[in-house]
Design a protein that fits this description.
single chain; 0% strand
């Protein structure tokens, strides 16, 4: 190859192939990360809304919460369904904006399937452990948040390490307040989750991940 590098010298064949590979890898990764900023914000709002709603019911409608201790299950089920649908739409549109054709569609389907599997595993694991029969809503939420955080960590390992940091932040935003914030844990977790989502979205925007 005769392309020049920064020193004005031609690239060796090995350097040329490495540059081509890096370019292709950036393009592939951008398809899998399409819509990351908007999706992070979407889930930050959804999780915060869920925690604030749960906190409000348990604080201001104690009779309802005592009679229906399972109410967080349906609440989170509806919110998770909305998040999955919204993420699919955002990711699909962003993928088409980055690239057209079968590659973009395939990347969108695989990312959607991955997150669908993460959410489904949260339901299956809590159901298999019998939490929906005798467990509390707090236990169900704790396990589900842990699985979603792990999903971000694994997805970040395969794409962008910073997303793994977002997963760690999600786990910390939930578990730390529940150990140290007492009765206000849900409200603190909601605020921390939203902060993690905003910081993650700001990072994604700054790094050029759309």
């Amino acid at each position: 190859m005769q392309a020049a590098n920064d020193g004005g010298q031609g690239l060796t064949p090995g350097e040329g192939w490495e540059a081509i590979y890096e370019t292709m890898e950036r393009g592939r990764t951008s398809m899998y990360l399409a819509g990351t900023t908007a999706i992070l914000l979407l889930w930050g709002v959804i999780v915060s809304l869920g925690f604030f709603s749960q906190y409000a019911v348990e604080t201001f409608a104690t009779g309802f919460a005592d009679e229906r201790p399972w109410f967080p299950g349906p609440l989170w089920g509806v919110l998770a369904a909305a998040g999955i649908a919204g993420s699919a739409i955002i990711g699909s549109r962003a993928s088409r904006g980055n690239a057209a054709g079968a590659a973009a569609r395939g990347a969108g389907i695989r990312v959607f399937s991955y997150w669908l599997a993460v959410v489904a595993s949260a339901f299956l694991i809590t159901a298999g452990a019998g939490m929906w029969n005798g467990g509390s809503g707090e236990q169900i939420a704790g396990v589900a948040i842990g699985i979603v955080a792990l999903g971000y960590v694994l997805f970040g390992i395969m794409t962008r390490p910073m997303l793994a940091a977002v997963g760690v932040g999600i786990a910390a935003a939930y578990y730390l307040p529940h150990h140290f914030a007492g009765d206000g844990a849900l409200a603190v977790s909601a605020s921390c989750m939203l902060a993690v989502a905003l910081l993650g979205a700001a990072w994604a925007r700054k790094s050029g991940v759309l």
